[in-house]
Amino acid sequence: MARSQDQAPPWGHKWRSSEFFIIAATATALLTDMFLHQFLVSILPFVLENRLGLGPELIQRVSEMLLAETALVSFIVTPVIGRYTDHLGARTWLLLGLFGELGGSMIIASAHSLLTLFAGRFVQAVANTIVGVLGITHLTNNTSSKGTEKIYGVLTVSLAAGSCGGPLMAGAMFELTGYWTAWMSAFGASVVGLVLQSLMLVPPQDTENEVKSVIAQANVAEDITEASPLLVPSSVSDLSKMSDQLRSTVKTIQNLDLQFYIYLLTNRRYIGGILSSICYAIVSVSFDTTLPIHVGEVFQWGSLQTGILFAILQGPNAFFSVPVKWLKDRVGSRYPTSVGFLGLAGLLWLAGTPGDDRFPWANLGYRGPVIYGAAIAAMGIFMTLLNGTGMMEAANAVRDIETQQPGRFGEEAYSQAMLISRLSWTFGLFLGPIVSGQLTEKVGYHDMTGILATMCLFCAVFATWTLKSSPLH
């Protein structure tokens, strides 16, 4: 016993266990995870056509199935992660998640059959869920309560960089150096994340708290995966207290009575937030499903141009998410959400005009590519206005219910409201590839964007009617 107490601390203990290094290592893990998860998007048509030998008529259908699989797996796996995190330390889970992302990427890169491709994406989806959940837990439990804005900024930039960097790097490296060189760059990024995560030392007491709050973190991770780096609800001003506020999620179904769900599902603000989350998820993931194929057919663009489009679509999140959060904290989500959907409605319609014979003015010379690229860039900005609406309005709805029924439902009400909000986002991510892919096949790209534009217009009106302009304090 005396010997163990006298043992010298591990090499580099001071800097390896510092708050700065924990933030840097975990942010790198999240960036790497999102980078690998999105890496396939810009080169997927090539993989399906040239490596799997699929005909052009099947590429759209397989793309939508592959992307829908991701949301479905995340929906199923999240509770399993929460159940078994007590058996392993949080850092071990993060390492497993990063190894899973690397392994899934290797399977996808070497795939010559649909079975192998879907198996690799399954592994990636499981790993992405693990890293997303545990990464946020690491940061919230190993950073001082004064570091809320710092954490938010780091997470925002990390996930935005991964989301736009993955398709951009894949497209550029593939076009300039070839298929396997492109994948080697992804594997190299994964190794960097693994090395930093292996070096990180987490205090034992923080690790214990991490594994207890993992399900709660999953409930607020809605806007992280696939589309949005707005990581936490605007109502939670102190990230270090988030797990305490949501810890009872597992018991909510048993403890809450039917009347709470009636109150919740008849609350206009809550329904408005839920619908906004679903619509936003459908629109955001529709780009992954249809954009690479569309620009290849209409503009004969390759993976490089496709990667650039995804970069300008996702990039604004890194710059505007923090100002948008500040805005919503002060004026509420009603007007930002309505403006966001109105902007998307017009821009979606405009993006569908190039390449359509019914709009010859959009196909003169280089006008089509310019219109499409400008529309994508503008949509990236408007989409930042939609970040976090579902979570913010879930918190608002619970406050309304607590005002009507003080102290009746307790903390479980907040947890369950967040859980349902998260499920609505996941449902949108599952529905989006199917809706956009099927519409593109049946009625064409322009009519698909027109239908999504109509949906956004309806959501703008509905948000104006259901949401309130008062901020959440």
What does this structure look like?
The protein has 473 residues and is mainly alpha-helical. It has a single domain, classed as MFS general substrate transporter like domains (Growth Hormone, Chain: A). Helices cover 77% and strands 0% of the residues. Helix 3 runs parallel beside helix 8, helix 3 (19-39) packs antiparallel against helix 9 (179-199) and helix 8 (148-177) packs antiparallel against helix 17. It is globular, with a radius of gyration of 22 Å. The termini are far apart.
Features:
transmembrane helix; Growth Hormone, Chain: A; transport; 77% helix; 473 residues; MFS_trans_sf; mainly alpha
Task: Furnish the topology, listing elements before pairings.
Blueprint: H1 2-6, H2 13-16, H3 19-39, H4 44-51, H5 56-84, H6 90-109, H7 114-141, H8 148-177, H9 179-199, H10 204-212, H11 214-219, H12 242-246, H13 252-255, H14 258-265, H15 268-298, H16 303-314, H17 316-331, H18 334-351, H19 367-384, H20 389-404, H21 411-443, H22 445-466
In angstroms, what separates the terminal alpha carbons?
A: 51 Å
> Helix tally?
22
- The overall pLDDT average reads 81
**Low-pLDDT windows of residues:** 205-254
In the residues, how many domains can be counted? 1
Give the radius of gyration: 22 Å
Which CATH C-level class is it? Mainly Alpha
| CATH-defined superfamily | MFS general substrate transporter like domains
Structural class: mainly alpha
In short:
The protein contains 22 helices and no strands.
